[in-house]
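Lay summary. Proteins are chains of building blocks that fold into shapes, and those shapes determine what they do. In this project we predict the shape from the chain. Here is one chain we studied, written as its sequence of building blocks.
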Amino acid sequence: MSVESLLATEAVVADLKATSKKHLLQELAGRAAALCGLNERTVFDALLERERLGATSVGNGVAIPHARLPQIDTVHGIFARLTQPIDYDAADDEPVDLVFLLLAPESANNQHLRALAKISRLFKHPEIRASLRGANGVEALYSMLTEDHRRAA
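And here is the predicted shape, written in a compact code that computers can read:
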């Protein structure tokens, strides 16, 4: 599974403004709903339900909110770099500024887990996180997300 198979250029947000975790999830739900043809509230509720199980931050300013939905038939991703880091209840107490949302079909356990593992491996590299934080615009972010991982992941 490649990042390209999860992420379209139009699913990359260079400077997302969010003031809280809930606000961030609302913004992402709206974008995901538009991209996938879903109801925004359905996506938001699924993301909140997953967060109730435990925060989806992975440390070092990165979060991978995710949910499974019966209304979709393939895994979808959205990447957002925040204009300002926000508190995300991270285990390392670091505020989050890099977010990769994953939505997977409800029946796709294996696909969902492979996508989570792929994105987690990508963000474990400090040089990739630094490059994403310093990138100028959507095109640069998309390129880093889809090309740099081949060398580092």
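What the prediction tells us: The longest helix spans residues 21-36.
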